[in-house]
Amino acid sequence: QASIINEALSSLCSPALVLDVDKVKINAQRMIDRCDKLGVQLRPHMKTHKTLECADIMTAESRRCIVVSTLAEACFYADHGFDDILYAYCLPFDKVERCAALSERLDLFQVLLDHPDALEQLKKRPLRDGRLWHSEGVELTGVYAHCGNSYHCRGLEQIQAVAQETTKLTLQFMEKLKAAGVTCKSSIGSTPSCSHPVRDMAQLSEVHPGNYAFYDAQQSVIGSCSIEDVAVRVLTRVIGHSPHRNQLLIDCGWSGISQEGVGKLPTGCAVIEGHPHLKLVYLTQEHGIVEPTSGLLDYSKYPLGSLLRLIPYHACATTMMHSVYHIYSKGRLVGKWTPTRGW
Ligand SMILES: Cc1ncc(COP(=O)(O)O)c(C=O)c1O
């Protein structure tokens, strides 16, 4: 199996980001099915991939009801026919005009406010054609919480305890709003909590996970998925042997995998697929240093030019290091996806 994959990928210059599109589709469909079963609207976050192709997979081609983390993403998706876009970021004052333009051109563009000063900024820029800002004091669409503390969990039980607590607190807050005469939507969710939802989440209006389409080594450590579910790899080549240090040099440094995994995994900065006894111990900008977890390296197994596949610790950070993603399916390279970039 490993040699079949490597043969298919051998035409790529490394480091290269490779996605197993069949795994992406399975991960996305599982989340759609989970939310359908629960009876809660899925509003997938686009931040991990920032591509049209994956957005279509995650929205089942509806091109509606998404979350973005930058205005560059919001504009990119709006330009390609997406609507009902939630910009999940504390309102940046320098970007109010661009938010206004999106609010005036889309059926629904939602912004987040977490400070009264931000509300003042919106009031200074009323929308044209009788439209209203979809945010607090103007037209409150809903309450949004990320559930980021689920990233400290290990295993199903802890994940569900955090999911339950966040759901409970959000629902209690909704009750208080209701008592004050305010009814609106509620949206929570991270990849860990939405990969193992609790029943009470059915009482929420929406959930908004994003990483789940790719997953990564971090999510497998948390317990959101198994390592086999991870759809993303960085292809790298052995470019040097250092027998005096018992090390290999590879052509992927932090500019190919990101610094996110440093010090986080027993196998170093990433998992080296199919080589559990290798550890990625150090990254420079363009180089990675690999050691065995114990004993002496057998260099005959890793000739110069041989391919290794890294499973990144944090997919969202690793994808940001690449301007193109190579798409792999059933033993073949089948295309490329180009993400949007910027803020
Ligand atoms: C505001 C916000 N909402 C939703 C998400 C998606 O969560 P996850 O990455 O766990 O899928 C993130 C992720 O960072 C986020 O920052």
Automatic annotation (TrEMBL):
Name a Pfam family for this protein.
Answer: D-ser_dehydrat
Q: Mind listing the GO biological process terms from this record?
A: D-serine catabolic process
This chain's protein is named D-serine dehydratase-like domain-containing protein
The chain positions of domain D-serine dehydratase-like read 231-329
Query: Origin organism of this chain?
Result: Mola mola
Entries under InterPro entries matching the protein: D-amino_acid_metab_enzyme, D-ser_dehydrat-like_dom, D-ser_dehydrat-like_sf, PLP-binding_barrel
SUPFAM superfamilies reported for this sequence? PLP-binding barrel
> Cross-referenced PANTHER family, in alphabetical order?
D-SERINE DEHYDRATASE, ZGC:162816-RELATED
